[in-house]
Amino acid sequence: MLAFDTSGPWLSGAVLQGGQVRAQAEQPLPKGQGEALVGFLEELLAEAGLGWEDLDALGAGTGPGNFTGIRITTSTARGLALGLGIPAIGVDRFSALALDGPDLPVVLPAMRGAVWIRETPAATPVQSDSPPAFHIGEGGTPPAHPLAVAIARIAAMRMDTPQPRPAPAYLRAPDAAPPSERPPALLD
What we know:
By secondary structure, the chain is an alpha/beta fold. The chain has helices at 33-47, 67-84, 93-98, 147-158, and strands spanning 2-5, 10-17, 20-28, 58-61, 88-91, 106-109, 115-118, 126-128, 136-137. It has 2 domains: 1-101 and 144-170, 2-Layer Sandwich (Nucleotidyltransferase, domain 5), CATH 3.30.420; 102-142, no CATH class. 27% of the residues lie in helices and 22% in strands.
C-alpha cells in the first residue's frame, strides 16, 4: 500500500507492507506539490525496496484542506490506479487524524482564522471561531500516526470492500467570484 496526501502545504507519504511501515516521509512544501509528488512517491518506494508493480492498492487523502492540494492527491491517485490496475481508496483527514487516538474532537484549520471541528467519526464537521479545550489536531493532542501512515492503515482496512474512487472532501461552498472589471476589448 502506498498512501499520500497533499491537502496542505506539504507532501506526506507512506508505504505499508504486511501491516508494517516500510517507508514514511513528510516534506513541507507550500507550492509545487503537483510537480514534486510523483518523484517523492518514487523515492518512498525505493526506500521500501519496492516498485510501482509491487503495489496492491493506493491510499489517497481526500481533505479537507486547500482546493488545489486535494485535487492533486485525488487526481494523481485516480490516474495511478487506472494505469497500475489497482484500487485507489480515499480517506478523509478527520478519520486519519482520529485513528487510534483518544476519543476527542478532531480540529483542522479553516480559512480566515476559523477551524473545522468533527466531534465523532460520523458527525458532520462544523466551522467555529475557536476549537474545544481538548482536541486532536493543531494546538491540541497530536495524532497517533503521521498523516500518510494513518491513511495507509485505514485504506488497508477498506481494501476488501468496494470503494468509490477518491473524490475531494470540500466542506465549504466555493466563494470565488468573476472579476468585476470588464475585460479589455479584443482588436480585430
